[in-house]
Amino acid sequence: MTLANRDILSIQDLADEDIEAILDTATSLKEISTRKIKKVPTLRGRTIINLFFEPSTRTRTSFEIAGKRLSADVINISASTSSATKGESLLDTAYNLEAMNPDILVIRHGSSGVPQMIASHIKCPVINAGDGAHEHPTQALLDLLTIRERHKTLTGLKVVIVGDIAHSRVARSNILAMRKMGMVVTVVGPPTMIPVGMAQLGVSIHYNLEEALRDVDVIMMLRIQLERQSQGLFSSFREYSSLYCLTAEKLKNASKQVMIMHPGPVNRGVEISLDILEGPHSVVLEQVHNGVAVRMALLYLLLEGGNEDSN
Fold it and tell me: Is the peptide bond before 280 cis (omega within 30 degrees of 0)?
């Protein structure tokens, strides 16, 4: 099935073959970013609007770079510069932007379901760049690409996702994507950070990090989502880091080829120790690099359907 003109709101919107097509396209487009002139004319004359109601470094910048490397016109709008500060509703903002005939609207919002709501009211494709604690589908796609590059496959790999599962849209999208691609997923964290019903997503649940890391292929550490917490879910950072910070000692049971991931931003010494973050198993910067390629692939496939030569 073609991805042309489709919304990308959830990993659940994508079939296995869609994910494979996105990853394959991203792989082919990565070469563009190594050129001296990092630009191709594929999306010349197309307009992409990035509408971000939450702070972002990696996601917004990589969407902007992705669009520009494909020669699209990219417009960035943040909450502080939009008419939302004057009382304009989300739908009115969307309607007004649609009236300017953009080709894609990329949306990040702190409330779950906002991209879905806007997509149901406008005609141009909408990409969810993260909505509340719900989903972050493009992060999951870039994570899959990073894993596939290292392990050459996805099926059967053992993955442990560690930390604030309850508030993490990254965790939810990755669990859905990884299970869809045949990976074995375990979540680890304090009981207060593991939401009810996780087992229904086909994952195992552990509360002891060292035990969960035995023979795993991929470890994904998550950021403590302090801005989404309205109650104390652990007594102190010291307590949390003593139990769930990834250190060399805790890694002793993991596979020798284990790869360590983090969606960023990282709270150093809380979620992951400095030596591990900057060590040979860490692929954190590879994730950032692949974020540009995956978002280039999505923009290309949504607007061109994969029918044109990107060179």
Answer: no
CB 63 within 8 A of CB 106: yes
Q: In what order do the strands lie in the sheet with 158-162?
A: 204-206, 184-188, 158-162, 218-221, 259-261
Instruction: Determine the average pLDDT of the residues in 250-265.
Output: 92
Superfamily the domain 11-134+288-304 falls into = Aspartate/ornithine carbamoyltransferase (3.40.50.1370)
| Listed residue (202, 245, 253) closest to 222, CA to CA | 245
Domains 11-134+288-304 and 137-284 share a fold: yes
- Residue in 6, 60, 69, 108 annotated catalytic: 108
Domain boundaries, the chain: 11-134+288-304, 137-284
Rounded CA separation 160/62 (Å): 26
Q: What is the CATH number of domain 137-284?
A: 3.40.50.1370
Does the annotation mark 86 as catalytic?
yes
Residue 136 bears catalytic tag = yes
Catalytic: which of 136, 158, 167, 295? 136
* 59 tagged catalytic: yes
Catalytic residue among 59, 93, 138, 146: 59
Catalytic one of 36, 86, 123, 256: 86
Query: Is the C-alpha dihedral spanning 279, 283, 284, 286 positive or negative?
Result: positive
The per-residue pLDDT for range 71-118, each reduced to its tens digit, is: 999 999 998 878 777 778 999 999 999 999 999 999 999 999 999 999
